[in-house]
Amino acid sequence: MNHNTLSAFDRIAPWYEPFMTFFFLKRDRVLLSLIQPQGHERVLDVGAGTGRFGKILAPLCLSITLVDESERMLSRLSSKESHLEVLVGDIFSLHLPSDHYDWIVLSDVLHHLSHFERLFPLLARLLKDQGKILIHEYTPNHWTTRWLGFFERRLFGPLDFKDMDQMKKAIQPWFELEQIENKRGWYIMVAKKKGA
Ligand SMILES: C[S@@+](CC[C@H](N)C(=O)[O-])C[C@H]1O[C@@H](n2cnc3c(N)ncnc32)[C@H](O)[C@@H]1O
Q1: pLDDT value at position 80?
Q2: How far is the CA of 10 from the centre of ligand 1 (A)?
Q3: How many angstroms is it from 11 CA to the middle of ligand 1?
Q4: Which end of the chain is more exposed for a tag (fewer CB within 10 A), N or C?
């Protein structure tokens, strides 16, 4: 992500959660129902934002690591969970443990990220065998995405919304698709790391 994008998230941090609530954009319940945490999972939330989902998940799993480039987004988090770790930085630059996580959450973040050819092998390396990614993204060309994109492009610059087929193709070399929930204007995918 470039410098403009980072400072934009820092600037909008205080208004991010009220915006998401007002426009009914939070998908935490669906995300949680797909993970179905049993208490033993290690989870990595990439582009965790204000840490809203991490806070919900923290008491239900073994550990959760929240990664975000925007310090001000993460500073909105008010959680005292001991097994919740917060890391400020670019996912491509942080040194995270290999073969460590059971789940990696990518909610509303992939259209801000480029270099998928580097991202998905990196995520596969961080996951344990049988580890899974959970993707939540917006469908390009749906009116809600056009509307969101209009504002987001003015704030953050170029964005790359991928439809389900493009996303399936992008993850396919490293991940095996397990589940897709196709909603109006957005979708969720669960995919398992491919075996060696
Ligand atoms: C639209 S917010 C989504 C926040 C949260 N996942 C949610 O669902 O509400 C996208 C977040 O991704 C972060 N982000 C974008 N690119 C990143 C990168 N390369 N490394 C870490 N965080 C990144 C931004 O700072 C921002 O907080």
Answers
A1: 67
A2: 11
A3: 13
A4: C
Q: Which residues line ligand 1 (CB under 6 A)?
A: 1, 9, 47-49, 52, 67-70, 73, 90-91, 107-109, 112-113
With cut-offs at 50, 70 and 90, classify the pLDDT of residue 52: very high
- Assigned token pair, 40: 């033993």
Protein residue with its CA nearest to atom 10 in ligand 1: 109
**Residue having the nearest C-alpha atom to atom 20 of ligand 1:** 90
Question: Where does the pLDDT of residue 82 fall: very low under 50, low under 70, confident under 90, or very high at 90 and above?
Answer: confident
Please tell me the pTM assigned to this model. Answer: 0.95
The structure tokens listed for 79 are 């959680």
> At 88, which helix (H) or strand (E)?
strand 84-88
Atom of ligand 1 nearest to the CA of 68: 22
Cα–Cα dist 53/15, whole Å: 17
CA angle, residues 43, 101, 116, in degrees to nearest 5:
95
Q: How far is the CA of 9 from the centre of ligand 1 (A)?
A: 8
Domains of the chain: 3-193 (3.40.50.150)
